[in-house]
Design a protein that fits this description.
Structural class of chain B: alpha/beta
CATH topology of chain B: Amidase signature (AS) enzymes
Shape of chain B: globular
Oligomer: heterodimer
Order of helices and strands of chain A: HHHEE
Number of domains of chain B: 1
Radius of gyration of chain A: 23 Å
Strand content of chain A: under 5%
Order of helices and strands of chain B: HHEHEHEHEHEEHEHEHHHHEHHEEHH
Number of helices of chain A: 3
Helix content of chain B: 25-40%
CATH superfamily of chain B: Amidase signature (AS) domain
CATH class of chain B: Alpha Beta
Number of strands of chain A: 2
Distance between the termini of chain A: 45 Å
Helix content of chain A: 25-40%
Strand order of the largest sheet of chain A: 1-2
Distance between the termini of chain B: 20 Å
Number of helices of chain B: 16
């Protein structure tokens, strides 16, 4: 079953700035992989169990207690650009 | 240097015939002699390791005993964050990243007195089966440096096989601990999902990722897992119940145990030497009193397909955090979106981009139900198959990998061929159950073959009991010839 892929749309959703040549390369590779992956449709019947945690855990919350957080200077030291204790990023809106 | 295993070294460290400094200096010497050929490590923390060794020896001399890992040189896969030590997950996008905190497993190792030698190489973000997808160059197999060590925890496996660490931690999302363990002749375990904290493990696929040990013996594996597992409030999926003792039944043997041989994990694509040694081991288990059953788990045939939808889908969401804003690489861009798109295209390698695209596609409108939704139904069906099998047998066995270590470059051009390396290991990630790989022999070319023992969730004591019996029956004592590597 050949799989139809709008690779430019998928790359945009994933925020990957790829060239036309790269897009074409990945589209062909994804086609091969997805043809194999489409075998999931061979499953017959509906399984009765739901996949959650293998040990059946739900709603695991820790105690809501105040504690130390990471040191701000240490965290900001890893950032590409900072100013006055903030992260600096390019504008989110044009114009 | 006589101690080959942690269990042996433990005694020497406590009767004064060995020091941590001796063990750590030996590990660093092996690394110095072999790293140019093997490249198991991305970072070696020589100063930190020697300091920690000194501290461990001081503690011993004062009678302070923090447990079996005190003074033992241990390596960490470079997707576990270490405070103050660069952590890259083998990606350019994290080049130079120095984490401000320790992963829970790292904190537990430190509290237990373990000496962290360094950070090991992996396929970028743990995506791969050969350690060739590292942005910092591949790792090679100590048994044959023209071959890969498996992956993605190939650096950890190669370090333990070569002796530049006595134990290492890896992470296993689809087989990334067990497959490299098999290909390098060491013991590798993926514990039950939720038993080892993922806090500080750089996430690949959160419902599948699990940290576990790579060691030279089954006993070392059990004692290392005991040191790192247990409930952690910092991981919402961490198991809160009782954790069983792992070393109490290692000597008990397999008399009366029911062992299931998985019929789907054999045949086409499996090397004859692998099949012969695995069935030879099954015969030996039968000779030791185990009851052998042929077991069919039909959904195993489509497990790989489900995995290559679920894992990339989760990866595409997890890796959205690498956006050039708060840490790591940033490429120039006029707007936030342009900066992000360029950073990600330049910072991620081809396999990571391939999986992000695959996962984004599988989750996108119009395809979600046919791909991702259906893959989740397959996952449920696999768990049902396992439950049926474990109502008849105590453990399941199979090869760990259909082949021995392959040549470097052999599968890099064909992603699907590479994915097939994980055919035997993926089902336990989808079910969440534990599994171990134990070396049982060499093929005609002198390359190691691994035997996989799978058990139901929290069945680690039985898994280790059978693995210890397999280890005794195999009496696998071969070691890679490091003189050849070092020359």
């Amino acid at each position: 079953m050949p799989v139809e892929i709008d690779i430019a749309h998928v790359a945009r959703l994933a925020r990957l700035g790829l060239s036309e040549q790269e897009l074409d390369h990945y589209r062909r590779q994804l086609g091969v992989i997805l043809e194999h992956a489409a075998r999931v449709q061979e499953l017959e019947g509906e399984p009765s169990v739901d996949v959650t945690h293998p040990l059946g855990m739900v709603n695991a919350f820790r105690e809501d207690l105040p504690g130390d957080s990471l040191d701000r200077d240490e965290v900001l030291a890893q950032a590409p650009e900072t100013r006055d204790g903030y992260f600096v990023a390019p504008p989110a809106l044009e114009g | 240097m006589s101690a080959q295993t942690i269990a042996e070294a433990q005694t020497g460290l406590r009767d004064g015939s060995l020091t941590s400094r001796m063990l750590v200096e030996h590990a660093l010497k092996v690394a110095a002699d072999t790293e140019a050929q093997i490249h198991a490590y991305l970072t070696i923390d020589r100063a930190g390791a020697l300091e920690a060794a000194e501290k461990a020896d001081e503690d011993f001399s004062r009678g302070q005993d923090r447990g079996p890992l005190q003074g033992i040189p241990v390596a960490l896969k470079d997707n576990m964050v270490t405070r103050g030590v660069e952590t890259t997950a083998s990606s350019q996008i994290l080049a130079g990243y120095v984490p401000p905190y320790d992963a829970t497993v790292v904190a537990r190792l430190r509290a237990g007195g373990a000496v962290i030698v360094g950070k090991t190489n992996l396929d970028e973000f743990a995506m791969g089966s050969s350690t060739e997808n590292s942005a910092y160059g591949p790792t090679y197999n100590p048994w044959d440096i023209d071959r890969i060590p498996g992956g993605s925890s190939g650096g950890s496996a190669a370090a333990v096989a070569a002796g530049s660490a006595m134990a290492a931690l890896g992470s296993d999302t689809g087989g990334s601990i067990r497959q490299p363990a098999s290909l390098t002749g060491v013991v590798g375990v993926k514990p039950t999902y939720g038993t080892v904290s993922r806090y500080g493990l750089i996430a690949f696929a959160s419902s599948l990722d699990q940290i576990g040990p790579l060691t030279r013996s089954v006993e070392d594996s059990a004692l290392t897992l005991e040191a790192i597992w247990g409930h952690d409030p910092l991981d919402a999926t961490s198991f809160r119940g009782e954790y069983p003792a792992l070393r109490s039944r290692l000597q008990e043997g397999v008399e009366g145990l029911k062992v299931g041989v998985v019929s789907e994990l054999a045949g086409e694509g499996y090397e004859p030497a692998v099949e012969a040694q695995v069935s030879g081991m099954v015969d030996k288990l039968a000779g030791s009193g185990a009851e052998i059953h042929e077991v069919s788990l039909p959904t195993f045939d489509i497990a790989l397909s489900a995995y290559y939808l679920i894992a990339p889908a989760e990866a595409s969401a997890n890796l959205a955090r690498f956006d050039g804003m708060r840490y790591g690489l940033r490429s120039a861009g006029q707007t936030a979106e342009e900066m992000m798109s360029r950073t990600r295209a330049e910072g991620f390698g081809p396999e990571v981009i391939r999986r992000i695209l695959l996962g984004t596609y599988a989750l996108s409108a119009g395809y979600y139900d046919a791909f991702y939704g259906q893959a989740q139904r397959v996952r449920s069906a696999i768990r049902e198959d396992f439950a049926r099998a474990y109502s008849q047998v105590d453990v399941l066995v199979s090869p760990t990998s259909p082949t021995v270590a392959f040549k470097a470059g052999e599968r890099t051009e064909d992603p699907l061929a590479m994915y097939l390396s994980d055919i035997c290991t993926i089902p336990c990630n989808l079910s969440g159950d534990p599994a171990i790989s134990v070396p049982i022999g060499l093929d005609g070319q002198g390359l190691p073959i691994g035997f996989q023992v799978m058990a139901p969730a929290l069945g680690e004591p039985t898994m280790y009991q059978v693995a210890a019996a397999v280890e005794r029956l195999a009496s696998f004592e071969a070691r890679p010839n490091l003189d050849l590597v070092a020359s």
